[in-house]
UniProtKB/TrEMBL annotation:
This is Isopeptide-forming domain-containing fimbrial protein. Keywords: Cell wall, Membrane, Peptidoglycan-anchor, Secreted, Signal, Transmembrane, Transmembrane helix. The lineage of its organism: Bacteria, Bacillati, Bacillota, Clostridia, Lachnospirales. It comes from Blautia faecicola. The keyword Transmembrane applies. It comes from the Bacteria.
Amino acid sequence: MSKVKRILSVIMAMVMVLAMSVPTFAATTPTANDTAKGTVQNVEKAATVTAYQITKAQYDGGFIGYVKTDNKLAIADVLAPTSDEVTAIAKQIASGAVTLKSKTMTGAAVADDVKYTDFTADLNAGYWLVIVSGTVDEVYNPMLVGVYYSANGSDNTMTSNPVNADSNWTLETSNAYAKSTTPSIKKEIVGGETAKGNDVAIGDTVNFKITTAIPSYSKQYDTVTVAISDTMSAGLTLDKNSIKINGADISADMIEKVETTDHGFTLTVKSDYAKENGGMELVVTYSATVNDQATVNFDPNTNKATLSYTTNPKGDVKTTDSKTYTYTFSIGAALSAATQGYTEKVNQIIKVDEKGNVISKVEEKSQEPDEKVVEVLKGATFTLTNTKTRKVYTAESGEDGGLTFNGLDQGTYTLVETAAPEGFTIDKTEHTVVIAATYNEDGTLNTYTITIDGKNTSTYTATYDKEGKVTTIATTTTVTEIKNTKLSALPSTGGIGTTIFTIGGCAIMIVAAGLFFATRRKTQK
């Protein structure tokens, strides 16, 4: 008997499980309140996803079919809207020509490092047109989510077959998988130390290249924005006549508007051209000259390219950008801008007197009673010549005895004094100066080194934060001294031999004069 009870218990459990698997709406009459969970997969979690109902179910003692939700909607077959019809409806929604029942779909929670998620909403029977908007990076095409009644024995497709309490029905959904494209833009330096970072001298020309592609837009998009802009810092001057697209001059068939300034430009692609040429690569090339407003050392002369593009039929516009860094070096200037807190100078070369005393503008009190304060030595003129380009830079020692050369490229230079301060002789020694630099992957300057005469080396290394700003600069510095000798310290002209000869000559003249006068006296006697 107990065995029979156990068997009956198992059978009852199976019946309960099977009962739980019976569709929720079985043995009930379909109504306008019926809903099912509609899902759109693979959407950026920061997006706003909205579903608009374009067809709905009709009821009369049960489900009897589908109709349009608004007579303004052009749908020939409510069971199968075409892509052209969906395109037209998306435009109507974007323009406000129709006001449809809508629901905001909710994104599933995901980890911080996960970009995409699924969005869901409880939707009534019918077709829902889903539009993705908000803060997104990608271009999304409108999608359809279908919610439909499926009776026992029917296939999983939307039909208008009547469904009632005797139909053993369920409410099914045809979910959507979001298809999107991610527009991008890449900015490069042509012929630089790296594609993202380089160094040049003031007056040099830098060649740039922007690579991007026109986003692919479906027919749902009426008017789209696609624009390429470039913004340079004050130290770069645009050559307005150098702009080319895919190796040719700017075409009026492609570009609707061209705007240029001394430090940048904007190229706006025609809307119709963009829609007809989705996926087309655009390569923009141009050049700029480094001017005397260029910042030096760890302060870069930046160049940012930006792509602006429409992300949805509503007309929302998103931007993405890419930046390059152009540097020029200075000897004797601040390591970085005062606004970033770095005012230490790169004083690699200083003037000293013949005793090797460093000359300083600030007169500090002597700690020793017999210690002398050395006067400022300024006014020495030097030339710094690039051994490759032969470009010559000139500097004069300042109040602190230091030299400042601005706008230098990395490379090898020859330093020579051409004029000494008043009262001093020229030091004719030629000094070899080498500037070398390394770059981070993003193009920012990592380190640069100044070596003088192969032994005195100063190295500067920067640390950056996430925003690309310099946080610290580590320095290892040595000083190169160039001595001048006072004229009063030089030996007398002619040397000791001339002095002895002169003294001897005078003595002979004195003896001769004495003999002359003595002989004259004898004659008179």
